[in-house]
Design a protein that fits this description.
Layout: E1 2-6, H1 10-21, E2 25-29, E3 41-45, H2 46-54, H3 58-62, E4 75-77, E5 83-86, H4 89-92, E6 95-99, H5 100-110, E7 116-117, E8 122-125, E9 130-133, E10 143-145, E11 148-151, H6 160-164, E12 170-181, E13 193-196, E14 200-206, E15 212-219, H7 229-236, H8 244-249, E16 257-264, E17 272-273, E18 276-278, H9 281-284, H10 293-308, H11 320-331, H12 366-397, H13 402-414, H14 417-428
Parallel strand pairs: 1-2, 1-11, 2-7, 4-13, 11-18
Antiparallel strand pairs: 3-6, 4-5, 8-9, 9-10, 12-15, 12-16, 13-14, 14-15, 17-18
């Protein structure tokens, strides 16, 4: 099976690793001239660790992380450092904080040489698996067709329009986040977690080598511009408890980056159409307020790998055999007609823009259609629920009203530990599907 993965982020590369190891012929197309991870950290909870296990990546991941963060006091503090609520160990569960650059390196090293094509920008895609590349991608043919296209091209996904039309767009949350990793180790005195104020908050997470990943969040217009991002972050959090100022100061100015925090304007009615399937932010972009963006992308990749593996054969090189036989039978009139996916018999589904050009009618082998349908039924409800919870959590954290912020703090301090643990378990408990 020839598979195109659009986007070399964590979700796209993870899916590429899993499917390539399962026997698929995978090519990753990345629009940037090089694969860049960005200077920030990533929280991987128990569900993400289970997905890494499923993909065969856990050993390499554990080599660049450790469990020391689990021994830190965590929860929410006020700007002056007083604790609002401490999160019990059972609510944190298994947790690793990883430098995104390390995770990207692990994923790239797990792929066969030549798998990732950079400077490869997709102008459009069609539900039959056809990709049209932009003229600047001069080293590629103008178009190519694949058995499956995986849209992992992020919040501003172009592939998403094949599945959902133009109606689904990024939605700004009202706040932006500076992120950075200190250039040197910083002593945290065994304390991490988030500190919340009115319309602002600051997060602290230790890395395995003693450096610290931090993020600083503030309400602001989406188009806000600052001459010096590091200096602005320092000014925004002047007077907050130690070691917040020290962490920002210990980070190289060029490594402090600000991102407008967004999710999707509405839920997708499906994560797939024809030979196109979405994962990660392209399917369910969420605010980072539950620390689940990376974990959900890993779950997507692991789920897709498990469901597609039976179609790929048992060893590399045999991946196209079973799917190819199904398509050959369809072409000669034997067996079930390829394209019998009920999602593609009656025009656009609810939630798609009927005026949008979705490309040629897709002929999808029944086995592939069934696998993608099951992927959708497993992933869409879970990710959309988590995205909604994350948005609500962010709105509570970013309250500016003194009255409402005080009420929030009182509620957080009164939540029983067992309820915190139960809420965390509902998000962090995951296992791969059975096939």
């Amino acid at each position: 099976m020839r598979i195109a993965v659009i986007g070399a982020g964590i979700g796209g590369l993870s899916a590429a690793v899993g499917l390539q190891r399962a026997g698929a012929e995978v090519t990753v197309f990345e629009r940037a001239p090089e694969v860049r991870a960005g200077g920030s950290g990533l929280s991987i909870f128990a569900n993400g660790l289970a997905a890494l296990d499923t993909l065969g990546l856990r050993e390499a991941f554990d080599a660049v992380t450790d469990s020391s963060v689990e021994g830190f006091a965590a929860g929410q503090r006020r700007a002056d450092g007083r604790w609002i609520a401490r999160v019990p160990d059972e609510a944190v569960g298994a947790l690793r904080i990883v430098d995104r650059a390390d995770l990207h390196r692990i994923l790239l090293e797990a792929l066969a040489p030549g798998t990732v094509r950079t400077d490869a920008e997709v102008a459009s895609a069609a539900s039959d698996g056809t990709l049209i590349f932009t003229p600047v991608s001069f080293h590629l043919d103008a178009s190519a067709r694949f058995d499956l296209v995986i849209g992992a091209d992020g919040l501003h996904s172009r592939v998403r329009t094949v599945v959902a039309g133009e109606a689904v767009a990024p939605r700004y949350s009202g706040y932006s986040a500076w992120r950075g990793i200190t250039s040197v180790p910083v002593d945290l005195s065994g304390e991490a977690g988030e500190s919340v104020g009115r319309g602002r908050r600051f997060g602290i997470a230790p890395l395995a080598d003693g450096r610290v990943y931090w993020f600083a969040v503030a309400n602001m217009p989406e188009d806000a511009v600052f001459a010096d991002e590091k200096a602005t972050a320092l000014q925004m959090f002047t007077g907050w408890h130690s070691p917040i100022a020290e962490l920002i100061a210990a980070t190289d100015a060029e490594a402090v980056r600000r991102t407008a925090i967004s999710d999707l304007s509405r839920r997708l009615a499906s994560f797939h159409r024809g030979r196109v399937v979405l994962l990660g932010d392209a399917a369910h972009a969420m605010t980072p307020d539950l620390g689940q963006g990376g974990g959900q992308a890993l779950e997507d990749a692991a789920t897709l790998t498990v469901l597609l593996t039976p179609l790929l054969g048992e060893s590399p090189g045999s991946g196209a055999s079973r799917l190819g036989r199904v398509e050959e039978q369809a072409a000669t009139g034997a067996g079930t007609r390829a394209g019998a996916n009920p999602d593609h018999r009656a025009g656009p589904r609810t939630g798609a823009n009927p005026d949008h050009n979705l490309g040629p009618r897709a002929s999808v082998p029944p086995d592939l259609a069934a696998a993608l349908g099951r992927y959708d039924s497993l992933r869409r409800p879970r990710t959309q629920s988590i995205a909604q919870k994350s948005r609500l959590m962010g709105q509570m954290f970013q309250l500016e009203s003194p009255l409402l912020a005080g009420l929030r703090n009182a509620v957080f301090s009164a939540v029983p530990s067992r309820l915190m643990a139960a809420q965390a378990a509902s998000v962090q408990k995951w296992s791969p599907p059975q096939v």
